[in-house]
Amino acid sequence: MYNQLTSPRTLGAIGLFVVAAAFYIWGLSPTIAWRDASEFTTIAHTLDIGHPAGSPTYSLLAKLTALLPIGSIAQRVNFFSALIAAGAVSLLFALLCDLLSTSTRWIQWSAALSGSLFLLLCQSFWRFAEIAEVYTLQNFFLILLLRLLLKGYTESHVTQARYFWLFAFCYGLSAGVHATMALFVPGFLGFTLLVAPQMFCGRRFVFLTFFFLLGFSVYLYLPLRSLTLLAFDWGDPQTWKQFLAHITDRNHASDHMILVWKQLPHQVRLYGQHLMSEFTLLGCVIGGMGFVYLAWKDFRICLLLGLVFLGNVGFFIRTWTVAWGFIPSYVIVTVWIGFGLQYLLEAVSMLYQRYSIRLPRIVVYASACATVMIGLGDVFTRHLPVARQTDNYSAEIYSKHLLDQLPPDALLFSEYAWFPLLYFQQVEHRRPDLTLMLQGEVFFPQYFPIASKQRFPSLHHLTSDEPVKMSTFKYFLHLIHLNEADHPLFWEPVAQNQTALAEHLIPQGFLFSLHPSTNVNVTADHLTDHWKTTGRITQQVLQDVHDEEAIYLLASKLIFIANFFRDARMDAEAEKTYRIALGIRPESQTAHHNYGVFLMNSGQLQTALDHIYQAYTLNPIDPIFNKNLGTILLRTHAVSQAVHFLERALDFGSTDADVYAQLGQAYIQQGRFEVAQPHLQAALQHLIEIDAQTPDDNQVRQKITWVRETLRRVETREPTRSSGP
User: Contact 143/331 with Cβ under 8 angstroms?
Assistant: First the structure.
């Protein structure tokens, strides 16, 4: 045992852990971060229940560092991520040393260290190693599981069962970090069947199942914890039905099954760009060589790594455009990089053994290693400004501005800001007088605990002796009417339900004040205060820090506010807000598109075309962008081009009745009546379905009338009107 602990490999792994931990702590975020990071910081402290699938393993382990008496809670949980990420890098080094054990020690160490350093500096992995997120722990478990499988593969039959049982326990435990660990079942199961089929027989299989369920039993924490009063209680998993829905993320089940085949070529190209950004061309080439070399050297290990890679990429490539969803695949790429460098160095050694080469061998080896180091240096310099979080206070600044802005006893119906605001209220005990209610708690009650008197004691709640059936929006209206006298009401800008509330909203920076009993008029004084608040928050959040998440958030909120001005027919304010959003984030496809639609409806077709086309170039597979490009081109009588984009909208999954109707209209203008007829019939069918759901929508009925009239004219070959639905 002592010899193992003091072996060069173990000491090297420990040394790499220390270096990686120091590196990540050097760039550690000093406070909360955006998205789920604020939620995970809070649940690590309070041990509440996070969003599906709950992540109990993460919250229980992160709680250990949250107990440290140093720094803020946010810093302690961020510190946990840094330690786990350093552990993952160190464990990858040990894994590569095991996999490359057939080489001489210096080749083995050089290749293993190179692969580990590529993971250390991988932008997505680096960035999440410095904030509170589950991805570092997920990939730590992935590397650990690969090493345990490899140990089981190489050990004798006498001891290998122990490694597979330990693997089963860790795999069950890892499911409590992130549900997508299930994507690796084909790789893990297939490899085990190939190398140790006896593990699925008799007593060994019973123990294998037992240890997996023992690890997976960490999920029992969720229903037990849900019995108490929690701030974060996603899914309310107190019953078997709710528990199963939560851990399987059933509310997003339809999203998990989306697959539009014609979008895949674009998504594959996008993933290739992510790989180039994460590893540079040099890393990708070496990784590709390593994959081919491994396939020739050991098919079983190649199959294991390949299926794990495909499990991650195959699931996320359908709809994801951000790089960090693919981190497990990057881990596999770093293993391939290790094999690729091993192949190159061994090839050089073989050449010198077979041929008499005058150039000293050490020069070739030094050049190869220097090339890799230069590549790593390039990765470091490009990723440093984005990944290092040590000066990033943007989420804290934004949240504190909102808290300071809200008057005493206010009720805020929140969305994106809910996580960071709850952190400051629940962990740092700021503004306990405020009531922070997630909009989803009202509009999607099936996924949350009931908004009861116990959870929100300061609010007035609807009561009835008899069951009452009503829509969630109607329930929301009753709730705000009951509470407007005692609580100033505020609404965070979002895409859903905001249009229905537009007559009752007054913009106040990045929030709206909500006045349910009054149809308000936005005055010049309101706008002056609004722009002062908006400018102050924007300047302070973005000051001296280039944070993509902060830029994304501010631009998104400004787009929603611009949409409010558009719906309120305040065109000058809408245009001003769209332009500010584009100034903050020029690459925002949503800002370009929404601004383009606004200009199109204002009759500025050429400028609208420029902006919607810009959105299209940023995301050419979006069916809405293709649809609106076709709409503008149809209005400008570019019929053939309009047909092209409207057909693309259908190819990329659009079921919009307007697309079918406009495409039918375009076919008529081309004289293709036989093709136009089925598209108009499809439009009519969709519109009738919409009319059944919204019987009071006169605009839908007007479209139905237009489509029926156009169909009649097509069938009789009468001249049709040129104007669309």
Answer: yes
